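Q: Give me a protein?
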Amino acid sequence: MTGQPPDRTHWGLVLLLAATATAAYLCRVNISVAGALVMQEYGLTQTQMGWVFSAFLLGYTLFMLPGGFLADSWGAKRTLALLAWGWVGVTVFQSAAPSGTGTASALAVVGMLAALRFVMGALASPTYPAALEGVSRWTAPGALGRANGLVIGSVGLGSAIAPPFITAVMVPWGWRAAMVASALPAVVIAVTWLLVRDPAPKAAHASLHARLGDGAREPASRVVARLMRVPGFALLTLSYTLQGYVGYIFIFWFYLYLVQVRQFSLVEGALVSSLPWVLSAVSIPLGGLVSDRLVQGRLGPVWGRRLIPIVGMGGAGVFISVGAHTTEAWLAACSLAVATALVLSVESPFWTTVAGLAGDRRGTGGAIMNTGCNIGGVVSPMLTPLLGEMFGWEPALHLAAVLSAVAALAWFWITPPAVSASGSP
């Protein structure tokens, strides 16, 4: 990687990046919790709700690569400050859906919500590429795994907060009030980014923008093709695609699976569905911390980064199969919760590795990899309930277990560069 890595980590900014991603995640997953009452009010089927869920991922996926270019050009602070206001606006608009089937057909409501979720996906797409850009500029080389783990730990933290928080508002005041409440943290984040100062040296900014300015004349398709030719980059993207297929099943369907398939009550489902995200809020940063320690120990940068994805996704496949097969509702919930924590524990090695492989185009590189993840994510919220209706939820979850194992195996042929661990070229 060209350019000098920072000699110290600005942990305050790393924590702000984590808080930003958490606020964004509340706006992303609020509909999956509110979905139980939305389906009840409008008489929607699981398949129709799956289209609403996947509309977000379609927008998220289509705009991921432009979002990566935006993050590389604007930097983390400017990009995230503007996007946060967009998350707030779209979330509030979602709460304006007309009440009851008397004033709107189910098809019209599905269309409205799907359109708004598509826009939300587009506005959320630069979040993690921009965060990766910020982490890379504000973090010392030896702390990259920990910093990325803290930021991406928002997946667990945001998802752990969402079910009890949204349900606490939704039960007494309805799902519309819950949607508005879920946007309040994003308001705080948007204001905070306006007040902070970017500590990166001005010379570093000038050097970076000069390099990117030269690269701006290179067509986007050529940038993508060049990155895909980097050894290991395409396989890393494929593995993350499979990880996304598995992870998004739990992001969108775990709560409804507990309520509708395993017969938990709304309140029980909200509490139990928080368990995997509480575990993930620990497992994601822990995966980054352990990966950094392994890299700096005897294993070195290659196996130090490889080991967490291999163990995490391989173990997740085992627990998914156990949860799918058992007839005991609580054992199923606990097994699937552990599986979620394991499949998400691999996030930091993925993002730290792609930053090393992509160099100064780390925002774009992260966007390409995340596009693969969300292609898997677009498919799984629609395909999983469809397979559940056709063959039952057990075979649908066994398929996810197999794909998780394949994603783990891919890492035997991915070689993380030394720069992802040490910051040296």
